[in-house]
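Notebook, student rotation project (T.W.).
Task set for the rotation: take a protein with a known small-molecule partner, predict the structure of the complex, and write up what can be learned from the model alone. Partner molecule chosen: fe (ii) ion. Sequence and SMILES entered below by T.W., checked by me.
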Amino acid sequence: MKNGTVSMRVRRYGGEILLSEGMQRMRTFQQHGTTTVFAHCVHVACMSLLIAERLHVQVDERAMVRGALLHDYFLYDWHISRKDHRWHGFRHAGTALRNATRDFELTDVEQDVIKKHMFPLNPALPSYRETAIVSLADKICAVREFMTSPGAQARALWQAFRPSEGGGQE
Ligand SMILES: [Fe+2]
Ligand SMILES: [Fe+2]
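Predicted structure of the complex:
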């Protein structure tokens, strides 16, 4: 195990993002099935670390986790039918990048992860291995979330990142 479990590393690298107002708002938006956008992004960050580890790919873990946590930072409920929610699948990566660069200081790798995570639906090729891994992790997590209800581990992470319960602050 590399410097802690994947959930420990997500908390370590993503603390600032996880506790931010925008990210906390994502608890109120549904993503796939009964999974919120917040939980989905945490799943994708954990899955990205697991994939890199299993495939023995050298990555910037901090950038990959931060990009994964913000990859769906579009900050609206895409299930609500509105003119500006049209073509969500194609447009939300750009919206997420605009919101994320407004709220956080991001590296080139982090921005690439957010902008291109919908590859190949959005055809721009990932420029970094971190982007390719997050894009793959996103698809695996989406399938799992559609097919299963949140498990005990997801609920534990959920609790851990709730500031009012003192999680994620140590
Ligand atoms: Fe997305
Ligand atoms: Fe996603």
